[in-house]
Amino acid sequence: MGSTQRLRVLAAMSGGVDSAVAAARIAEAGHDVTGIHLALSSNPQSYRTGARGCCTLEDSRDARRAADVIGIPFYIWDMAERFHHDVVEDFVSEYAAGRTPNPCLRCNEKIKFEAVLDRALALGFDAVATGHHARLSDGVLRRSVDEGKDQSYVLGVLTREQLAHAIFPLGDSTKAEVRAEAARRGLTVADKPDSHDICFIADGNTRAFLADRLGAEEGPIVDALTGQVVGSHEGAFGFTVGQRKGLNIDRPAADGRPRYVLSIEPVSNTVTVGPRASLEVRSIVGERPVWNGPVREPYEPMTCTVQLRAHGEVYGCRAQLSGDQLHIELDAPATGVAPGQGAVLYDGDVVIGSATIASAI
């Protein structure tokens, strides 16, 4: 969005320091800003609280106090039903299908930049501003200057139309600079710790959360090299590709080296394990591609880079669209590539597209 005209901006305020400073910057720039906090749980006590929190009653109060300090109107929008359907139920069903979803990525796509943006535009707002650490200019999404806090990966699912109505005011600042600015502005969240893990799993125990919804069912752990059953588990959904710890294996590998989860088969409830070398993949197929960058769709092989998980390593690759699939050939092997995660393509620090990983070999 351009900054020369006065815009009506909806500032999504999570209750954290980033979204508070983002709202303050937009208001100070002379735009007509309204703050909103998303109520994402019909029972907020069931979500994380305190330092590890997100989307709690404490967060809504922090967001309201920040809006008061900034001097902007503030409202709470109830998105609990939509969040439960599009994020929580999607999370459970993806694990049930043997995939490893990224709920933050899905929340950005379905809640913050679909449900919220649709409502904002319907109400006459020009844009939605968030505290994500990413740069956006003329509709082009780039990495944050703070590489350690960069969130362009979880924004890679956004369409060009959504990016055209988004503002990310923090992309040119480090996290330390944002905290210092919050303190100067008198925002009480200046020292509030960042939220971590999954906001809708109150105790952080993903396996127990899934077992409660999918039901525990004993299944085998199979060694890929020998075909032997080397252990058992209470549900394949409790594992992810690349996992090493908590495998409950009865006998060590012949070479004494650790085993890793290589694949998850939900129908037979089988977890297959093997050596780290067997995790290496060079070829990835992605589904539901989104092309949102400044270059054209690559119907011929295009040289670029790809990030395969949040804050993960970046790999050189060649990418090509074929129908509704994105084919990615890596220059060097990657490990722990899990179906269900996002593959986000970059040209330097510019996001050019993304897809959801369907398979990898």
Automatic annotation (TrEMBL):
One GO CC annotation: cytoplasm
Chief localization: cytoplasm
Domain tRNA-specific 2-thiouridylase MnmA-like central: 208-274
SUPFAM superfamilies in UniProt: Adenine nucleotide alpha hydrolases-like (SSF52402)
GO BP: any one term: tRNA wobble position uridine thiolation
Region annotation (Interaction with tRNA) ranges: 149-151
InterPro entries: MnmA-like, MnmA-like_C, MnmA-like_central, MnmA-like_central_sf, Rossmann-like_a/b/a_fold
Site (Interaction with tRNA): 132, 341
Keywords, alphabetical: ATP-binding, Cytoplasm, Disulfide bond, Nucleotide-binding, RNA-binding, Transferase, tRNA processing, tRNA-binding
Superkingdom to which the source organism belongs: Bacteria
Binding sites annotated in the UniProt record for ATP: 12-19, 38, 131
Function per UniProt: Catalyzes the 2-thiolation of uridine at the wobble position (U34) of tRNA, leading to the formation of s(2)U34.
UniProt record similarity statement: Belongs to the MnmA/TRMU family.
NCBIfam families: PRK00143.1 (NF001138), trmU (TIGR00420)
Official protein name in the record: tRNA-specific 2-thiouridylase MnmA
Lineage: Bacteria, Bacillati, Actinomycetota, Actinomycetes, Streptosporangiales
